[in-house]
Amino acid sequence: MTGTVRFADVPRSRWANGLGETVELWRTPAAGPFDARLSIATIGSDAPFSSLPGVDRVLLSLSPHPLTLDVDGGRTVLEQFDTVPFTGEAAVRAVGVTTPGYDLNLMVRRGRGTPSLTVVSLDGDLEVHGVAVVLDGTVTGPDGPLAPFDAVVAAPGPVSLTGRGRIALAGGAAGAAIE
What we know:
This protein is mostly beta strands. 0% of the residues lie in helices and 60% in strands.
């Protein structure tokens, strides 16, 4: 299903552990337990992430200030657009949060593919397959201008994005675009 998901129009929901909020941009299947899910979470304070057994995850920091995570006891500092993969069973906690920020999360049920988030620069036209999220810049999609964090779902066929800026491409099975 091709379409545009406007970040500002999607209702916020609580994390599974109730300690934060998220905006679901895309999932398959549309109802019930997901095989794959793409969302933007607000990191507003030091807090543990929800445990999601049987799910592989990749997180991309969207904030211009560093995001520090403890992942199974090891400290990881992410700059804007850095990624970190981890399992849904991992003990993950945001630490040292002084300014609220956002992260982009791709979660894939184990055995259904390997999640990946890739940041690409757009300067002109780009044909997109799967799901793309606008990170910054001036980008136009099939339904008009796109704001930061808006998503374009290009399935079953590709769509064209035009403009200048950065976008995140969500990948799944064997690193291919999610469709």
